[in-house]
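Q: Got a minute? One more chain.
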Amino acid sequence: MITGARASLGAPRRNCGPSHSKGERVSEVDTRAVVDLLGALAYAELTAFDRLAEDARLAPSLDGRAALAGMAVAEMGHFTQLRERLVELGADPAEAMTPFVRALDAFHESTRPSTWLESLVKAYVGDGLAADFYREIASFLPSPDRELVLDVLADTGHADFAVREVRAAIRADRSIAGRLALWGRRLVGEAISQSQAVIGEHDQLAELIITGTGDLAGIGRLIDRITAAHTDRMKRLGLNP
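A: Always. Here it is, folded:
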């Protein structure tokens, strides 16, 4: 999957200009690329609200239900920020989100959790992987969009709750660790597959990534960083990556 992602991002496109070091913002970013990125992220936040509110009903305790409901509320706040910025850019938020509906809905349909622990792993590992990807792209943006994306992706502290719950469950029953590890691997595979599809269908977004990373080696390093962060999250949960 990782190799395939490199190939997808590295496909020949229009001239993307000079190379840039990691984290260097791209000058004169195409507004269409910004709208694409914010539209994708806005729909991701909207669906995260729906999903977390639904998954909260799987919680075995009121504390767990309240924690996931709190995550859902935070996601809706992030969606509102992104929607307001899209309007400032002269874009219709619904139109900006629509091109990403199919891919994101497909991801969530194929990774619908069946248990409370699966929902926590998805919220921590799956959403964390997506957040890393968006942060990498945000590093190429000028203000205020760079700060906006980083703000809506900031950890609100709910990650610690997911880690505590999963690790406690594993201590109580070691047999569930293998199943949850497989679930985590499935999440990353599905996420990468859908990311490839989204990028492949949006030239401006793809060019922003290629220009920002500089070359194929830069894309490879970006993917390596995302993969390393995913591995760290799995280990923090007590799962084999």
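A: Residues 62-88 form the longest helix (27 residues).
Q: Perfect, thanks.
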